[in-house]
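Q: what sequence does this backbone want?
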């Protein structure tokens, strides 16, 4: 009876050992780097969160500018960002919170910003105008209505979320 033994040469043994140890060490070094590279991109951002901005009984039928801050996380960069909205109560008693960002080229609109058009939002950059409900005035530069903030009311407090085009509300 003959027994076949598979011999491993010293060279092969060294090759297997060094490949195994080298692979293990490489994986151990790469894992934290890969995690650092992709982890922030996988985390959810707080941008969609609602933030308390005002008491509902302080809101009138006249648009008033409300500013608040949010913590914004852009992948690896965290910052505090100031947001603004033009907020008022409609005739139905609903609350409308309009983005002040002009839909033409992104300047900031103001309520009654023009002496000539007292019941409109006015953009000083290119004389863009919007009606009180945020709809763009025809034949002025903006081609779309102002975005509208998602909102909710809880215990008399107004919370604002993300500004979205009104057709997405
Ligand atoms: S940016 Fe507002 S009209 Fe041009």
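A:
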């Amino acid at each position: 009876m003959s027994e076949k033994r598979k011999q491993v040469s010293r060279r092969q043994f060294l090759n297997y050992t060094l490949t195994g140890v080298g692979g293990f060490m490489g994986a151990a070094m790469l894992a934290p780097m890969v995690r650092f590279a992709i982890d922030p991109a996988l985390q959810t951002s707080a941008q969609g969160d609602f933030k308390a901005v005002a008491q509902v009984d302080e809101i009138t039928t006249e648009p008033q500018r409300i500013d608040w801050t949010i913590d914004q996380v852009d992948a690896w960069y965290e910052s505090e960002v100031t947001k603004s909205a033009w907020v008022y109560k409609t005739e139905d008693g609903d609350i409308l919170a309009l983005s002040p960002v002009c839909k033409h080229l992104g300047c900031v609109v103001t309520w009654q910003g023009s002496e000539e058009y007292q019941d409109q939002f006015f953009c000083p950059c290119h004389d863009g105008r919007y009606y009180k409900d945020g709809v763009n005035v025809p034949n002025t530069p903006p081609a779309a209505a102002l975005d509208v903030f998602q909102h909710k009311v809880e215990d008399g407090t107004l919370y604002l979320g993300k500004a979205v085009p009104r057709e997405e509300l």
